[in-house]
Amino acid sequence: MAYVAGQDGVVRAFDTAGPDPAKPVWETPLGYLPGESPMEDRWRAGTMCTANGLGSPAMHALVTRSTVYAGTWDGRVVAMERASGRVLAQHDLGGGVASSLSISGDVLYALTDDGSIHALATR
Q1: Which residues have a Cβ under 8 Å from the Cβ of 105 and sit 6 or more positions away?
Q2: Which of 107, 120, 113 is CA-nearest to residue 59?
Q3: Burial of 18 (0-12, 13-18, 19+ CB in 10 A)
Q4: pLDDT for the residue 59
Q5: Among residues 4, 31, 40, 78, which is most buried (max CB within 10 A)?
Q6: Calpha distance 122→79 (Å, rounded)
Q7: Please, what is the end-to-end C-alpha distance for the chain in angstroms?
Q8: Nearest Cα to Cα of residue 121 among 102, 106, 101, 109
Q9: Which residues lie below 8 Å from residue 19, measured CB to CB, with a gap of 6+?
Q10: 45 vs 76, higher pLDDT
């Protein structure tokens, strides 16, 4: 399986050994934090902006035995069930995720664009 967190705010799982490896097994749109969607920005909406993706751009998919984690530009770490993509939990870090996520033991680490390092329990 390959897991991809996309600029369109969707995390996808692909079965690279399946009959159609380009077709996602599951897709999970991550949405936006309240007030963070481009369509909630008066300036963008006022200039007829219609580019509202399925969610805040996502990146840095990190996969464990049972969970897929992704960071978002609007400042969240989202945990999804590996088999189905169902969102298990999400946490607002207060700043956009700025680098790859990492895990050590039961702790997930995330660096945000405000210069903070966050350590989150994975259970």
Answers
A1: none
A2: 113
A3: exposed
A4: 85
A5: 78
A6: 9
A7: 23
A8: 106
A9: none
A10: 76
Sequence letter at residue 50:
T
* 55 vs 88: CA distance, rounded Å: 17
Q: Which amino acid is at 93?
A: L
Res. 79 pLDDT band, cuts 50 70 90 = very high
Distance CA(49)–CA(31), nearest Å, equals 17
For 9-49, the pLDDT digits (tens) are 899 999 999 999 999 999 999 988 776 766 555 544 445 55
To the nearest whole number, what is the mean pLDDT of the chain? 87
Three-state secondary structure string covering the chain: CEEEECCCCEEEEECCCCCCCCCEEEEEECECCCCCCHHHCHHHHHCCCCCCCCECCEEEEEECCCEEEEEECCCEEEEEECCCCCEEEEEECCCCECCCCEEECCEEEEEECCCCEEEEECC
β pairing state of 107-111 and 67-72: unpaired
